[in-house]
User: Fold this.
Amino acid sequence: MHSSGKPHDEAPWSVGFCDCFSDMKTCCMACLCPCIAFGRISEILDKGSTSCGASGARYILIMCITGFPGLYSCFYRSKLRKQYRLKGGCCGDCMRHLYCEICALTQEYRELQNRGLDMSIGISTLNHLNC
Assistant:
């Protein structure tokens, strides 16, 4: 570890945070149905212990109660970042989700796609990859 307390082997994200419009299909899904985008992300990161539907329902519930679904989804950004040793920090994860939920979900979704995961079929992809 460096003196800053961060591991020195952190990798950059495969797509930029503001690159939402370079993949309009994912951007539109995250904008129009963020609960689906989040559900798919969480199902993959939880390795199937929670379903896309259950996570999406929690996302909607938190959005209806608080108006800020990023209070929940930011924890999955941290989980993704730690799992793949991506650059960033917990505070930045929360700020991205609170101020630009659509860009955060789009970036996370595309990061998993770029790592070879077929987001539309969820956890069955992990079984194929022997994770």
Summary: The mean pLDDT is 87. The radius of gyration is 14 Å. Residues 52-66 form the longest helix (15 residues).
